[in-house]
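Write out the 3D structure for:
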Amino acid sequence: MTVIARDLNPGVRADLDGFVRVRRLALPYVLFTPESVAFDVTHARPEARLRRLVAEEDGEIIGTAQVGIAHESPEPGQGFANVYVHPERTRRGAGALLIRAAEEHLAAEGATRIYAWVLDEPANRAFAERFGYTASRSAHFLRLDLAHGTLPPLQDPPPGVEIRPGSDFADDPRPLFELDAEASLDEPGDIDTEFTDYEAWLEETWRHPLFSPGLTSVALVDGHPAAFSAARTDGGTRYGTVMTGAARAQRGRGLAKLAKNDSLHRARAAGFTEAFTGNDAGNGPMLAINKWFGYETCATEVRYVRELA
């Protein structure tokens, strides 16, 4: 049996279905659909140098890789390569083929450093270290049972504060872009992120097929967005918050918690049964908020890094 690595073809449904099947088996805490995978490939910014790779064995996709340049980082040359293999198809060389293809691509595009998320399991960590990667920070995946769990009751906002759905900003989402850009500056991580391109944010975030403006909640102070919780859904029963934050001047007031609670309640009312999110292990305040909501850690990933000559 021969294993090959190649680019995913976003115009071939079997490729999209195979990519999603592997990701859901290897990483069930993150939302993927065939439509979202195709969108990510076809709408990527040229400067991202984005590629989606698959490892194929006798016509079956058994491995996947997300590869690209972190073009929103102020530091150039930051690449990423996240490889996941079907849990029942490991030790066949798929991961090695994918990481080598990813490194060749990133080196050719001028990357000087490659970051890779690796599930915190002995075999996965050994794989990364065998290819010269060194462990860095870690992050947690968290799950909340919306069907059977008990959410904190909704609270009345303090005077001057209003909670509204993100869909209310459909005619002009720029205030949400500005809030997202400010909150993202302080997200802990290995790669700093700066959102400066509004049109790119509209294309990649606001118009993303998984993004749910109706379940995204925004806290306004005197009519201006001050905190938010951004939601995605998979079109089924799974809901996730991909960013929760507040403007720097409004932090410490519990506004992000108010927004997230509102979003969770509306997600449950809409029939979603599982809620997922993720936090850097060093993000104590957000981890405490999610514990307050009842989220439980379901897996941990470690960020590995390799310097390229």
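The first strand starts at residue 3 and ends at 7.
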